[in-house]
Fold:
Amino acid sequence: MDIEKIRQNLKTAWLGKDIRYFAEVDSTNTVAKTLAEQGVKEGTVVIAETQTSGKGRLGRRWESPKGGIWLSIILKPELKVKELVKLNLLASVAVAKIIREEFRLKAEVKWPNDVLINWRKVCGILAEAVTKRDRAKHVIVGIGINANFDQTALPENLRATATSLKEILRREIDREFFICNLLKGFEFYYENFRKGKVSLILSEWKKLSCILNRRVQLSCCGEKIEGIAHDIDENGWLIIKLRNGTVKKIFSADATLRVER
Ligand code: BT5
Structure:
């Protein structure tokens, strides 16, 4: 990856002005957390060519072969931990919009943290907070995009559910250009978020969503819930209508969602 090209073409006001680039790390989120503790500025971005222990949610592994876009953004928002899902939604909207605008592909968002193309995952997001009491001291938003590698770079058990931009487009993308656009889009939505204009992000998310009004099964807090994905509330929590007509709101922390197509 040509980091100098990113620095020269980046049109953000503050995001990504400090980029820390590594050929290989365990996880860009872990590196970003350490940097945040050391006091680097908000908007610092960690990028790696490959991750040896890329992290998904709930201790899951995130496969990170060379050719992908693996990055983490360090933020210092005024945020309660339960609001963290809003940053997941924000990031997934920023990614899906760029994929749509740049490649004319129908990228869709799946609550709480995925971007899918043709129902296969092309991007995963992991927002983690370093907390003090119930408030976030720093938040790390990790974004993983399957960009320039063939599906065969992923383990066999993921090939039915995962895809890459290269596989769909049958060519490699300009990762540096993509990152510049992603950071610009992310900054735009984050500024709105900071000014309390969350409704813009939520309405964009709803337009891009592939789950609303579909039957879903949710594993959450050791419980299995089935119903129709009805809406998301102002905090980004998922509202599910159960069979008996009651409504349940789900916070994303340990929720795993299956959608019936
Ligand atoms: C996620 O978790 O989707 C969050 C992924 C976040 C990755 C980024 S990369 C930069 C930053 N640094 C990190 O260490 N992490 C972040 P979750 O919803 O739990 O999904 C994880 C599941 O997705 C795994 O259990 C696999 O089934 C599947 N999976 C793993 N690697 C994948 C890949 N590259 N593409 C598609 N699916 C994958």
